[in-house]
UniProtKB/TrEMBL annotation:
Keywords noted in UniProt: Membrane, Transferase, Transmembrane, Transmembrane helix
TM annotation in the entry: 21-41, 47-67, 91-109, 115-132, 139-162, 174-196, 217-240, 246-262
Species of origin: Gloeothece citriformis (strain PCC 7424)
Keyword Membrane: yes
Protein name from the UniProt record: UbiA prenyltransferase
A Gene Ontology molecular function term of the record: prenyltransferase activity
Homology family: Belongs to the UbiA prenyltransferase family.
Signal peptide (UniProt feature, chain positions): none
Cellular compartments annotated: Membrane
Membrane topology of this protein: Multi-pass membrane protein
InterPro entries reported in the protein's UniProt record: AtHST-like (IPR044502), UbiA_prenyltransferase (IPR000537), UbiA_sf (IPR044878)
CC terms in the record's Gene Ontology section: membrane
Lineage: Bacteria, Bacillati, Cyanobacteriota, Cyanophyceae, Oscillatoriophycideae
Amino acid sequence: MSSIYTLWKFARPHTVIGTSLSVFALYLIAIAATNSLINLTNLGQTLGTLIACLCGNVYIVGLNQLFDAEIDKINKPNLPIASGELTQKQGIFIIIITGILSLIISAYLGKWLLITVAVSLLLGTAYSMPPIRLKRFPLLAAFCIFTVRGVVINLGLFLFFSKTLGGQEFLTPSVWTLTLFVLIFTVAIAIFKDVPDMEGDKKYKISTFTLLLGKELVFKIASSVIIICYLGMILAGMFWLPSVNSYFLVFSHVILLALLWLRSQNVDLEKRSGIRSFYQFIWKLFYLEYFFFTAACLL
């Protein structure tokens, strides 16, 4: 049981949940867009897609832990590589297996899934691995994160599902709207994720927006970005997306906007626990977006 929990921590649970929700959400949105029915065949393809994407997820976050082991001993000492629960050799073995599996499964299932997974792995590798190691540069690090989470996953998976379900690739206004929302929202994740990690990043000379601008300003920017996302989605629901349930979409995002405002009033930026808690709250808002937007497309 302990080895399963160690692997779960190595996979970074918040990213696993985010990846899983994006797969199922885009599958269901494609079901609605193609007027298809859920059946065992496309459920099996979706399960294969989920496995491929989760293997890719483990590869990306695992590779980052391998090259950030010393930094994580300061910033995230509970992670398996940093704590010694997993050795470097074990970590390398896991990412090799998951990386290969993600490419094999996606290649078997379809062109668009292979492109989605391959581009994600490529950017994930460039983000963490020397000599490129884009995470050293704030703008390029943020670019990697919001490109994968915002553009590659949403457009790539929908193109795959539309081709699989309807026989032809296409994109809808709903998918473009979700992609733009997640792209901008992920900017908030990308710039805020380093706020709890100032100590280790400073010691190992990893340049981040937090070190350049200060945690107070980064907090304000991240919160403002999410507010802009919610206001944009409310306007899209009112004027741009006739194929979705606009009443549900607008109401749900007014609620999310209120939750963000209430939660942002009680963040103690002087305590790492408080900062980490707000960062996890941002991820929960990310999860809820896929849930509410998909529901609006289906209702």
